[in-house]
Amino acid sequence: MEQWSSTTRSKQRSRPEDHGGAPTPPLRPGGYDPADYAACVVRSAEEAGVTPLLVMTVLHNEAYKPHHPLLERLWQWWKPEASFGVANMHRATFQQVRRTHGLSEQWQDLRDDPALAVRAAALHLGDLDRSLPERHVRRYTRDELLALGYNAGERNMRAFARGVPPGPMAQAYLRRFRANRIRSAEALAHPGTPGDTAAAG
After folding, report:
1. Phi, psi at residue 18, to the nearest 5°?
2. Could you tell me which residues are beta bridge partners of residue 23?
3. Are 50 and 125 contacting, i.e. CB atoms less than 8 angstroms apart?
4. Angle at which helices 114-131 and 142-152 pack, to 10 degrees?
5. What gap in Å lies between CA 128 and CA 118, rounded to an integer?
6. How far apart are CA 164 and CA 77, in angstroms?
7. Which of 122, 18, 103 is closest to 62 using CA atoms?
8. 32 near 60, Cβ under 8 Å?
């Protein structure tokens, strides 16, 4: 009986957890899809006062590495200052968001709670939006500048808004952001059942 119970508990632990409509990313390589978090993106964007398309596109930009909690722990072991969660947030950025918005969670919680990661990213984008001048160079949309701020920091974002050219890494991020807009819009227009992709992993 005890052996059966242990097996049952093991199977239960292997199932993707769901944090408010945000399933745990799958362990299987290539199984992660930001579209699984469409409902969470919409809620978080509304709370933060930014567009869901901005948040979803940032998630697609940050989908370059696996986001399963185990893999993120291994990644941190290899690179202690690595970013965490499906939105790849660094410790200093999360601490700033935590202080500004009175969050009770810790930076490490981003690994295990995708809903928190999406919410923190949206709140940070909202903070960046409030710090961005209304007038900026025309070569970027407001969402593009906010995405650059997410990637390169608030100070650099404000410099880009004044016309300072982004460096190679920021330019690459902007190219990916522009390329990911269509698929992000499709993910929001046709949201699937949360967890379909994760369950397949």
Report:
1. -120, 120
2. 18
3. yes
4. 120
5. 15
6. 36
7. 122
8. no
Per-residue pLDDT of the chain (201 residues; tens, 9 = 90+): 333 333 333 333 333 444 456 787 766 766 789 999 999 999 999 999 999 999 999 999 999 877 777 777 766 766 777 788 899 999 999 999 999 999 999 988 888 899 999 999 999 999 999 999 988 999 999 999 999 999 999 999 999 999 999 999 999 999 999 999 999 999 999 876 444 433 333
- Residue 59 burial by Cβ neighbours in a 10 Å radius (0-12, 13-18, 19+): buried
DSSP code, position 18: B
| Rounded distance between C-alpha atoms, residue 155 and residue 14, angstroms | 42
- If we measure between CA atoms, which residue out of 60, 26, 28 comes closest to residue 196? 26
- Rounded to 5°, angle at Cα 112 from 71 and 130: 110
Rounded CA separation 26/174 (Å) = 27
Instruction: Answer yes or no: are the C-beta atoms of 61 and 67 closer than 8 Å.
Output: no
Token pair recorded at residue 23: 């399933």
